[in-house]
Amino acid sequence: MKINTLLILFLGLLIACSPRTEAEKIVDDAIEAHGGKRYESARIDFDFRDFHYQIFKSPNRYEYSREFSDSTGFVRDVLNNEGFLRTVNGTPIDTLTEERIGAFSRSVNSVAYFAFLPYGLNDPAVIKEYLGQTELKGEPYHLIKVTFQKEGGGDDFDDEFLYWIHTGTSFVDYMAYSYHTDGGGIRFREVSSAQTVDGIRFQNYLNLKPENKDTPVEEMQDLYERGELELLSEINLENIKVEMVK
């Protein structure tokens, strides 16, 4: 019994002392630069297009909600550790198909994911790889590739992301990603503006796409620098409010 206890303690100490990879160090610095520990106790409200969102994410739990009005009334979608729930005028809707639940969940999760970047890059399912340094618009960047484990990676575990993290500021100024749900595609995002609210940095983006939706993410920087990406939309968060909660 004592031997087993000592073995467990030794293994725990070994894991705790394992050196961080270069990718982990760079991502940790980026999270610190964008908001650090404040992410873990922040409830964030903002408007995006015709929806109002409220986002909370800590190491142990999360809850994302969006609200809007349509022909059915006042709609509220909630995605949390327990699953997804839609209410209309306060009444739970239990007739949604699995396909619709999946689509609504992905939609809510996608907005929350990008609004909280780079905080989510330390989620357990994330696999980070350092691809080295590069230069974009005359500025130096670390290039980080992110993929996801199938276990815990959600419906879109096979998506791929690239993040350009400035070597000086540690800000995530550009990203590219490929996705396979809802028809699939690939995007490149460039920060268009940023603001800091209660110690957390929020970024707006120009959302661009290539002509070929099957373009590898590794080719997106070259296409961007050659001016061969089309502006698809603008990602702007408005009326941002941050409430620190326990």
Describe it.
InterPro entries: DUF6503. Keywords: Signal. This is Deoxyribose-phosphate aldolase. It is a single chain. By secondary structure, the protein is of the alpha+beta class. It has one domain: outer membrane lipoprotein receptor (LolB), chain A (Clam). Helix content is 21%, strand content 45%. The protein contains four helices and 14 strands. It has a seven-stranded antiparallel beta sheet, with helices on one face. It has a seven-stranded antiparallel beta sheet with strand order 7-8-9-10-11-12-13. It is globular, with a radius of gyration of 20 Å.
Write a concise keyword list for the protein shown above.
single chain; 246 residues; alpha+beta; outer membrane lipoprotein receptor (LolB), chain A; Deoxyribose-phosphate aldolase; signal; DUF6503
Secondary structure blueprint with pairings:
Elements: H1 2-16, H2 22-34, E1 42-48, E2 51-57, E3 62-70, E4 73-80, E5 83-88, E6 91-92, H3 98-115, E7 126-136, E8 139-148, E9 160-166, E10 172-179, E11 185-197, E12 200-209, H4 220-225, E13 230-235, E14 238-244
Antiparallel strand pairs: 1-2, 1-14, 2-3, 3-4, 4-5, 5-6, 7-8, 8-9, 9-10, 10-11, 11-12, 12-13
Distance between the termini: 39 Å
Helicity level, as a percent range? 10-25%
Write the CATH architecture name. Clam
The CATH topology, please? outer membrane lipoprotein receptor (LolB), chain A
Category from helices, strands and their pairing: alpha+beta
Report the order of strands and helices: HHEEEEEEHEEEEEEHEE
Instruction: Quote the average pLDDT.
Output: 90
Q: Please identify the oligomeric state.
A: single chain
- Structure summary, number of beta strands: 14
CATH top level label:
Mainly Beta
The low-confidence parts are: 5-17
Major sheet strand order:
6-5-4-3-2-1-14
Binned strand content: over 45%
State the major sheet.
7 strands, antiparallel
How many DSSP H or I helices? 4
Shape: globular
Rg of Cα set: 20 Å
